[in-house]
Amino acid sequence: MAEKRVINVVRQEGLKDLNNLLFVGVMMAVGVVLRLCAGFLAVAGMHPNFLIATYCLSLLIVRPKLHEAAIIGLISGCISQIGTSMPWINILTETVGAVVMTLLLMLPLPMLLRPIITTFLTTLVSGFLFIGIVSCTYVSPMSAAIFGQMSMVALVTAFLNCVIVTVLSIPVSRVMNK
């Protein structure tokens, strides 16, 4: 009798896999469209940062290498220049955010809490880095009231982003792992 042949399909991590590369591209496109339409989703003048949410979801699913994550963050930062009132800052903050997300994904976190914790902390790092750069360049010295207001925006955005990524991570993960 002939032996039964078994084919093991191993899903590659990172951007070397064409499906992963396409997924990241689609997520960036979705982030741009949602960013441009985010005005109607504002709650008390605050809305999710869809570019951060989409790159967090991408990084969560694709698991790129650190330098690949930095490239994804850099691209996201360049995209975020569309319609910004404070140019150049997001190029750094999104690059750092993507690297932080990738580093956080290396921690042994429970699977159910991973999207919540990593996205929340990534958005906070990106947001507070943004606030720090703004306080050194655009609004120097920054008053406590402006700092408090910007900090509240960063916290609410972090909460909204982690809800979005958590809700989407399970179905997207199932689709990508087929």
TrEMBL record:
Membrane-spanning parts: 21-41, 95-113, 120-140, 146-170
Keywords (A to Z) from UniProt: Membrane, Transmembrane, Transmembrane helix
Superkingdom of source: Bacteria
Protein name: Uncharacterized protein
Organism: Candidatus Faecivivens stercoripullorum
